[in-house]
Amino acid sequence: MAASGCAALGYQIVWTQQVALWLGHEGAAALAVVAAFFGGLALGAAGLGAVIERSAHPGRWYAACEVAVAAWGLVLALALQPASLLVNGMLGPAPSPLWHAAVAFGGTFCLLLPATLAMGATLPAMERLLAQFQTDGANLAALYAGNTVGGVVGVCGVAFWCVPQWGLTTTALACALLNVACAAAVLLWTPAASQAGSRPGSRAGSRPGAPSAPRPVAATTGDAGARHGLELALVMTGLLGIGYEVVVLRVLSQVAENTVYTLALLLVVYLVGTALGAAAWARWGSRGRADAPERRVDLLVALGAACALSGGALWMAPWFKALLTLLLGGGFAAALWAEALLAALAFGLPTLVMGALFSHLCEEARAQGLRFGTALALNTAGAAVAPVVLGAGLIVSLGAKPALMAVAGGYLVLALLAARWGAGWGAAAAQRKPGLAWVAVAAVVVAMTGAPALVFVDKPPGATVISHVEGALGTVSVVQDPSGERVLRINNRQQEGSNTTALADARQALLPLLLHPAPQRALLLGLGTGVTAQAAALDPTIEVLAVELLPEVVLAAQHFDGVLLDLGRARNLHTQVADARRFVRTTDQHWDVIVSDNFHPARAGSGALYTVEHFQAVRARLAPGGVFCQWLPLHQMDLATLRSIVRSFLAVNPHGAAMLATNSLQTPVVGLWAQRDAAPLSVSAVTGRLQSAAITPAPGDFGLADEWALLGSFVAGPTALARFAAGAPLNTDDHPVVNYRAPRATYAPEATPARRLLAVLQQWTVDASELLAPGVDQPAAARLNGYFKARRQYLAAGAGIEPAADPARMLTLVREPLLAALHLSPDFAPAYEPLLRLALALRASDPPAAQALLEALARVAPAQAGAREALLQSVPAQ
User: Fold this and answer.
1) Phi-psi region of 566 (alpha: psi -120 to 50; beta: other; left: phi over 0)
2) The whole model's pTM is what?
3) Pick the residue with more confidence: 440 or 429?
4) Contact 41/124 with Cβ under 8 angstroms?
5) How many angstroms separate the CA atoms of 268 and 206, rounded?
6) Distance between CA 587 and CA 585 in Å, rounded?
7) Strands 475-480 and 486-490: what pairing?
8) Any alpha helices (H) in 623-682, and if so which ranges?
9) Which of 432, 141, 399, 464 minimizes the C-alpha distance to 298?
10) What pLDDT digit, counting tens, does each position of 602-625 carry?
C-alpha cells in the first residue's frame, strides 16, 4: 500500500502539470485535479468496493486495479498533446466562466476517471484481502498510514527528482511500473488462500486459528439515525479536511514563494501529518472500544480547536518565515526548510487529528455494518467538492479568514450533532459532550470576530493599500507610498510593475512595434499595470489586444490609467480575460506584432509560457512579416534557466536575436526577438518608420530618438545565442525544466542582477552584419557596431560606480568612462545626456569645469549639438 500510494501521488503531481497546460494556471489545475482525484476515488470505493466485498478473490481485484491504473497513467502520459489540443478546443480562446469551470472540473474528472476509479478500489481490496489477519480495527489505520507515507515519498521523489530529471512521460512510466510491481507482489507473493480472502459472514481465512470477522453492531443494536449521522460525518470531514488545505494554500501563497516546490512541500507536510495521526491511532487509539461513538465527538472537538488554533498561527506567518530565514540562513535547502516549517505551523496539529479521525470513522463504520469501501467513498466524495466550495466559493465571496473559521466551525457543528443524536451512549456522555463543543464553538466565534483578516501585503512605511481583491486564482493588490508610487502585486510575492517604471514598460511595446515596417494589429500576452499596453496604443492606427489571465489584474490596472493614456478611453486598446497560452493555440486570428510579458519564471505554471510548444503556437499566429518579442526578467532568473529558454526559442526561431529593454543594471530585462520571415533589417526603413510613427509622445521621449537608439538595443545575434544555449535542455511541455530550475534563483540568487547582466554580455556578441542586409548598409553597419561597443563600455563602467549627490564628485566618477563610450560611438545618447546634465548642474558652482565639459562633448559628439542647445535653452543658468 505504501508503494501504491507513492505511485498515486506521483501521478497527481504529473497530472497537475499536464492539466495546467490547458487550464492555464497551476492553482486552477491543482483544484481541478484534487476534485477529479477524490471524485474518482469516491466512485471507485463505492462501486468497485461493493463488488470486491462480495468477491471471493479480492487479491485478483487488487492486482487488476493496479494494472488498470498503470495502463491509464501511460495513456494520459502519451496522449498529452492530443488531450491538450482537445480540451483547448472545447474551451476556445475566451470561454465564459461557467463553461470554463465545467470543462476544467468536468473534463479533468472524465479524463482521469479510469485511473482514479481503479485507485479508489485498491484500499478496500487490500483491507478485504488482509481481513484474515485482523484481530481488531488497527489494520485499517495502519493501511491508511502506510498508503499516505507512500504518498509522501511519491510527492518528494516526483517533484524534486523524477520530473526535473526525466520529464512527465518517463515519470508516469515509472509510476506505472510501480503499479505493476504492486499487482505482481500480491499475485506472486501472497498465498492463494490469502488472495481469496474471506467471504462475508465466514471465517476470515483458511489460516489455522484465524479470528472471525467482527460482527456488525448496528445491524442489531444501532438505529438509522446513528448510521445517517456517521455517513454525514464521513462526507463532511472529507469536505472540511481538503477545504482546510485549500484555504491554507491560499493564505500561504501571500507569504511563500509559490513555486512548484512550495506546492509539493505543502502537500508533503499535509500527508505526513495525516499519516502520523493514522499511525498513532493504530498504535494507541484503537485500544478498548476504538469504535465507541463518543470518541468521534472528542476528535471532532479537538480538530475544530486545532484548525482554529493553527489558523490563528497563520496570522504570524510573515514574521515566522522571517525568523526562520534568519535562523536557517541562505541557500536553496535552507529556503525549502523554511517553507516546510511554515507549512508545519499551519498543517501540523490539524492533520494529526485528521488522520486519527478518519481511522476512527472507518472503524466506527465497520462496527455499524457499513462497508469500508462505502465509508471511503463518502469521505472522498466530500473531499471532491471541497475545491469548488472553498476555493471558488467561500474564499472569493467572503475571504480567507471567514472560510478558515467556517472550516473550524464545521467540525464543531458536527461534534454537536454527534453528541445530541448519537446512539448507544450513556446519559453522562450525552450531557458532557455538547457543553464541551459549545465552549469550542464560542472560542471560534471570538477568534473570528476579534482576529485580523488573513491578508498580507508588504508595504513601505506610510504606504496605503488602495486596492485588494481576492479572486479564484489569486489575490491582487495595489499599494501606494507617500511619494505617489503605485505598485501592483499578485499574491503579495509577485510585483507586476509600477507607475514609476513607465519608461521601461513602454519600451517593451515600442521596440518591437517600431521594428515592424507597418504594424496594424498587435497582441500583448499579459497586462500587468497596463502601461505596456498603453504604450502600444499610443499609435491610434494600431489595434491592440491585451490578454490577461486574472480578471482582478484587469480591474487593478485601472489604478494606472493616465500614466501614458486612459485605458478605458483608448478606442484602439482592448483587453481580454483569458489564458495567454490557450488563447494563441485556439484563436484563428493573426497579428503583425506579438509581445509576451516578462513572466516571473519561478512562479508555478509560468514556465509553460517559455516552452517550445508555446513558441510554436505564437509563431503560427504571426501575420506575414510579423514580429515576436519575448521579454525575460533577467533579474529574476539564473543563467541556466536563461540558457534553456533561449535554446527553446531558437528551436522555433533559429534566426532570433536578443535586445535590452533599457540599460538598467538593477532590473535588467532582455528580449528574444524574431521575425516570421527572418528578413534582414534596413537602416533606412527603420529611419522612415520612426519618422512616420503616429506616436504621441514621440519615440524620442522614450529614448528612441533615432535609428541608432532603436537598432542599438540589440545585444546578441543568432550565432551568439546559439553558442550561449548550446547543450542546455529544451523546455518542453513534457520536460518543464524551467518550472524546476528557475525557483533556485528565487530562493538563493547566485549573483546580483548587475553581475548577471554583465556575465551574459560577456558571452553575447552582436554584429550589425547579422541584422542588416549584406552589402547595402555597410557604412551604417560600422556605425552601428560602434554603438554596440559603446553600450558595452557604458554598462561595464556603470556597474562599478556608486551614485553621488554632489555633481562635482559624480563628474569625477563618470567623466572619463562616458567620454570613452562616446569616442566609440558619438551617437550613444545614454552616455552623452548624463554628462550634459552634469555640465548644467555645475554652471553655477564651477563654471570653468562646466565649460570644459561642454567643449569636450562638442569635440567628441558634434552630431549631438542640436540636443545640447535644446537642453541648454530649457535649463537657464543659475
Assistant:
1) beta
2) 0.88
3) 440
4) no
5) 39
6) 6
7) antiparallel
8) 639-652
9) 432
10) 887 788 999 999 999 999 999 999
